[in-house]
Amino acid sequence: MTGYTESVHAEVKEFGINVTVIEPGYFRTEFLNDAGNNRKIVSNPLEAEYKGTGVEATRNALVTVNNHQPGDVNKGAKVIVDVLTGSGSAAGKEFPLRILLGRDCVQGIRAKIAQTEKLIKEWEDVIVSTDHEDVAQQA
Q1: Helix, strand, coil share of the chain (percent; to 5)
Q2: Cβ within 8 Å of residue 100, ≥6 positions away
Q3: Pairwise CA distance, residues 36 & 27, whole Å
Q4: What secondary structure letter does DSSP report for 82?
Q5: Per-residue pLDDT, 139
Q6: Is 26 helix (H, G, I), strand (E, B) or coil?
Q7: DSSP secondary-structure letter at 39?
Q8: How many angstroms separate the CA atoms of 71 and 60, rounded?
């Protein structure tokens, strides 16, 4: 969604149209709760097949974080309204391409930046090797 939003944002900005993607972290809702019919549990969760995999780690993380999510829904909703209306906490700030909500988002984005920097550092020679010869000579 972020890539799509970046494209649309660049395309329509000159027409005075703002586009943003809202990227929330974990917010304390009933979404992960078994009760209330918010969460669907499959009849055969394939626990043995997923033992020791990322799927099992994700399942365990969701159980652990449930009812301990750091985000406050009311505060998050207020920030969204502020950003979309350019008021309150967003007053005087440039309309953002992305609205990150929650301290866990900050951690996640910083980790992604570090991961991307590492990828570029390790692979830069391969990345730039695809240029035409006349471009490579200019560098």
Answers
A1: 60, 5, 35
A2: 23, 25, 106, 109
A3: 17
A4: H
A5: 54
A6: coil
A7: S
A8: 19
